[in-house]
Amino acid sequence: MDTHFIQTANYEPLVERLVSTLNSALSRGVSVAWFLSGGSAIPIAVAVSKQLMPGERRARLRVLQIDERYGPVGHPNSNWQQLLDAGFDIRGATCQPVLQGLSLPRTTEAYLETVTDALSNCDLRIGLLGIGPDGHTAGMLPRSTAASETQKLVVEYQGPDFTRITVTTPAIARLNLALSYAGGDPKRATLAALRKDGPIEVQPAQAIKKAADWYIYSNVLA
User: Fold this and answer.
1) CA dist., res. 64 & res. 194, Å (int)
2) What's the rounded mean pLDDT across residues 149-168?
3) Which of 115, 25, 14 is nearest to 65 (CA)?
4) Average pLDDT of the chain?
5) What is the number of structural domains in the chain?
6) Strand (E) positions, 55-191?
7) 19, 71, 135, 182: most buried, per Cβ within 10 A?
8) How do 124-129 and 177-181 pair as beta strands?
9) pLDDT at 222
């Protein structure tokens, strides 16, 4: 089996890996950018947040979003609001949510500035990404303009459900480590396809493989 794909009963091994990696880096004074997804990645992020070391060293941690659904700050479909509602709390870290009450163009511009700065200036860049049954990751839906983007780090576009603001493959490619958990039978076929290389515009989760190092945990690996 490809060592990048890890068979596991649940997401606890991924939580343990993230906690260990983040705490080790922070204890050494390394500046860290931690990019978070919504959806199925939310309980993982919450579990990790409860186990990070307290104190001044959290000041070296920047928490950013992988993607967001545009709207007013705190709207019910916001990935960031859903993280907060689930109990995500890292006091002492620098949290940089996408939504700031600005227009869509200005929100995207500000988000790009935040992402660019984190990718350029943080020593360690880690992404926690979800994988949908349709093969999407971040806010990159299959055959969307985001999935086909090869130059810009951040894009906005109107999806069939939400106006989405998301990082793209070029941003994921600048992560030191990308981690994901995809569990449940609805994702079995998606993971089987992901085990082979394919076009990102068709299966955006293929972009996870562009990170410097990456691992996908699942309980439904063939």
Assistant:
1) 26
2) 97
3) 115
4) 96
5) 1
6) 61-65, 67-69, 94-96, 124-129, 154-158, 163-167, 177-181
7) 182
8) parallel
9) 66
Q: Where is 6: in which H helix or E strand?
A: strand 5-7
Angle 49-89-73 from CA coordinates, rounded to 5°: 130
Question: Considering the entire predicted model, what is its pTM?
Answer: 0.96
**Tokens found for residue 80:** 């960031």
Structure tokens given for 85: 């509602």
Tokens of 166: 């998301």
Task: Quote the pLDDT of residue 1.
Answer: 47
Helix, strand, coil percentages (3-state) for the chain, rounded to 5, are 35, 20, 45
Query: How many alpha carbons lie under 13 Å from residue 212 in its C-beta half-sphere?
Result: 9
Six-digit token string for 170:
């070029």
C-alpha triplet 135, 138, 143: angle, nearest 5°: 50
pLDDT for residue 2: 76
How would you label 98-137 residue by residue, b for 16+ Cβ within 10 Å and e otherwise? bbeeeeeeebbebbbebbeebbeebebbbbbbbbbeebbb
* CATH number for 131: 3.40.50.1360
**Diameter of the chain measured on Cα atoms:** 47
Alpha helix (H) ranges present in the chain? 12-27, 42-49, 79-85, 104-121, 169-172, 188-194
- Kindly report the backbone phi and psi dihedral angles of residue 155, in degrees, each rounded to the nearest multiple of 5, phi listed first: -140, 160
Cα 96 from Cα 63, distance rounded (Å):
6
